[in-house]
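ok so for the tutorial part 2 we go from a plain amino acid sequence to predicted structure tokens. step 1 is just haveing the sequence, like this:
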Amino acid sequence: MMDTPPTQIIRRRVNIDFLSAKADGWPLDRKDTEELLNALSFVFPVGEKFFIESVQAFLDRITDPELKERAKLFIYQEAMHSKEHARCNDVLLEAHPYGEQIEKFTDTCLYLNRRFLPKATQLAATCAFEHFTAMLADRLLSSQESFMATTNPAFATLWLWHAVEETEHKAVCFDVYQHLFGKGVVAYLHRIIVMFFATLGFFITAAVGLRQIKKGIKSTHNAAAAAPDGRPQTGQPNLWYLLKNIVFLRLYTDYYRPSFHPWNHDNAYLIERWKVRYHDLGLGAAPGAAEAQA
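step 2 — the prediction. this is what the tokens look like for a chain of 294 residues:
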């Protein structure tokens, strides 16, 4: 566990105005990026709930006061993510009626995880999925200027805020796992085996989500169109293209190193860059604010 994380986990109250946003009108340069983010938005409400439960199950066993506090802040942030993506999805359903199928599919998969996997494995799975969200967050924050310039303000606010908080708490689950189960061979093998299967789960969920999003796209988005680089903006899900633009291969494979820690890749400076643009959100809620409920 890293003794002093390079960034603070901030408790923020967020209430984004999605009603003014057009559900079927992200003015993005690449429609495939929009489609992937919309698919993931339908995954997040139930996914974040699973993450919260996996950490809550071990809160009483965390003996380090500082780590326990960070775990509580992680729960707060994830609960807020779940709430805001659920509100966003209410708007997105207008253009993507099959979004509910994405949520049901994800919920079924996570139910099977809860039903058949030990709590320790559920925590390890959360560590793995948090690594994926951290990589996505790094991609978004690394290009936040262009993302803001080409994205509806409500959606830009949602995704960049989410990316910042995923970065702030990206090591919490990992630190909880190592605090409870150590860094020995058994804990390490368990962690990387779970990552292998979590990777399969991530790819399958992304593929199912993209398929459902494209299934429900309005007729105006069904006409074949080529992007400036020659790749199709619509048509069949180009999952490989999307994932290779989200997943840093080096960062992904780093997870399999015995000495890996999420803050080996220190990108806290991206959070400071975001705070300049979203000053009010960057301040967070007043200390002592009531925690969001999972």
